[in-house]
Write a structure and sequence with these properties.
68% helix; 121 residues; mainly alpha; 4 helices; 2 strands
């Protein structure tokens, strides 16, 4: 009876740890991706100004794009740069990017930048 109990105990421990073991091999790739995304977003944050100006100008007119789009672009530049800095500092905790799209060049001409809360991967 003790042998059966020990076997069941060992098997239950192994099965409860298996999801963690399966995710453990993904950890280096996830933290590396987060670090890379953070570095890229810090460097390319300034690109948010022309991106937002182009998108705003196409949707609401050239004057709006050059004025309000410029100032909105500055806000998005700060958001992308700061979220990249936070990703660099916290890269050891694998989370999804706060800024959407994760890279400025993803759908550059059509999608204005947005932000969401972190989610664990």
């Amino acid at each position: 009876m003790k042998t059966i109990f020990k076997t069941i105990l060992i098997l239950s421990i192994m099965f409860s740890l298996s999801p963690n073991l399966a995710m453990a091999h993904e950890y280096p790739a996830q933290v590396g991706e987060k670090l890379g995304t953070g570095i890229v977003n810090v460097i390319t944050g300034v690109g948010e100004i022309p991106k937002t100006m182009m998108i705003s100008g196409r949707e609401k007119g050239a004057t709006y794009g050059m004025t309000a789009g410029f100032f909105t672009g500055i806000v998005h530049m700060l958001g992308r740069t700061l979220s990249g800095a936070v990703d660099i500092v916290t890269f050891v905790v694998p989370t999804t990017p706060m800024v959407k799209p994760p890279f400025i060049w993803d759908d550059f001409h059509h999608t204005e930048t947005s932000y969401e809360l972190w989610k664990m991967r």
